[in-house]
Amino acid sequence: MTDFADNARAATRALRDLFPATPLMRNAHLSERFGAEIHLKREDLSPVRSYKLRGAFNAMRKVRADHPEQMDFVCASAGNHAQGVAFVCAHFGVRGRIYMPVTTPQQKILKTRTFGGDAVEIVLEGDFFDETLAAAKTYCAAAGAHFLSPFDDADVIEGQASVAVEMMEQLGKAPDHLILPVGGGGLSAGMASYLRAIGAETRLTLVEPAGGPSLTAALQTGAPQTIEITDTFVDGAAVARIGDRTFDVLRGTDPADVLIAPENRICVTIQEMLNLEGIVLEPAGALSVDVLGDLADTIRGRSVVCVTSGGNFDFERLPEVKERAQNWQGLKKYFILRLPQRPGALRDFLDLLGPHDNITRFEYLKKNSRNFGSVLIGIETDTPGSFGPLTDRVVSRGFGFRDITNDQILADFLI
């Protein structure tokens, strides 16, 4: 048994002073659907509704053991790491200074303050996270505080490995297949290191959001790369650069074992887990479940664990989730309709709609005296194949009809 495995087990035992092991739950719906024994490791049920508490606790525990005089800790985060750090600051009775971007939603600020209480001070600085991070590190250098990294830290990685320790104890064996989300790489590096240390023959699948595949970029070049984030929807995993330490652990990963999850499909998964199972998952927390369909042939008849890494979901985002899910399912589209300025033209268009085509958005955009006006129109249907025939009918009648659903610039501006 390696030192890493021993240390991960020690971290797991220490965590019991903070909270009990999160459940490992067999999911009957998913197991039946995919013909496998599928368990969910419910990190969304930790005290701060994510696994980030583990790494923050372990790092702070070890700093305090080596330097008991250290009472000041700092982090930069607008999400789960901030809440984890706040929680452990209150637990250890130390001072926490948590830097967040000025644009951080009030809900996240309130939750962080609730977990930390009088132990933490929240500092809003910078419009973008890079500015926030720079401010946090500048303060650390000046004040002699200890910076708690969200993932690129050996003690944080070791703390996240406690998820694997618990999983093994609860399942009673190593699963055949483990599916993990990956952002900065702390969770995946920790769990992979533990399984490797104990000689488990578990197959690992790592999942990244399409808008921020930093591990994929690093594997392609052999080193961490700073990439452009093209979609921030999966904010818990859309990381511009995977950690150096975490990549050292993951650099041997077969690129075929890293899957990319489209954001709109993740929304379908979030809805299904909420409506069918009553499980609230944040976008990053749904990544491992989302790719089960991609792995259907591989996992059939196998024991599978999906780590649902977090459940900090703001329900104000539900309309966006529904919209994006309908987009992926082909149930909702937006069009620009060119409408001639004559009596009955709108009626002629409406007559072309099918019995299950519902108009959900209608904005007349005519701004001059031309003979044609433009209409922004949103249409929902309950049959994905309806839009093709509808488009054919509209075009055959001579109407200009442009699908802007996936035109990002126009959709952002008009919708």
Describe this entry's structure for a reader:
This protein is of the alpha/beta class and 415 residues long. It folds into 3 domains: 3-50 and 155-321, Rossmann fold, CATH 3.40.50.1100; 52-151, Rossmann fold (3-Layer(aba) Sandwich); 330-414, Alpha-Beta Plaits. It has 18 helices and 14 strands. The protein has helices spanning 3-15, 28-34, 52-66, 80-92, 106-116, 129-143, 154-160, 162-171, 186-197, 214-221, 244-250, 263-277, 287-290, 296-299, 318-329, 345-350, 387-396, 408-414; strands at 24-26, 37-42, 72-76, 95-100, 120-124, 146-147, 177-181, 203-209, 258-261, 303-308, 332-340, 358-364, 372-380, 400-403. The strands form 3 sheets. It has a 6-stranded mixed beta sheet, with helices on both faces. β4 (95-100), α5 (106-116) and β5 (120-124) form a beta-alpha-beta unit. It starts with a helix and ends with a helix. The model has no long low-confidence stretch (mean pLDDT 94).
The percentage helix is 40-55%
The low-pLDDT segments are none
Amino-to-carboxy terminus distance: 57 Å
Main sheet properties: 6 strands, mixed
Number of strand elements: 14
CATH class of the largest domain: Alpha Beta
Strand order of the largest sheet: 1-2-10-7-8-9
CATH topology of the largest domain: Rossmann fold
Find the structural class using helix and strand composition: alpha/beta
Shape: globular
Specify the CATH architecture of the largest domain.
Answer: 3-Layer(aba) Sandwich
The value of Rg in angstroms is: 24 Å
Q: Helical element count?
A: 18
Summed up, the domain count is 3
Can you give the mean pLDDT?
Answer: 94
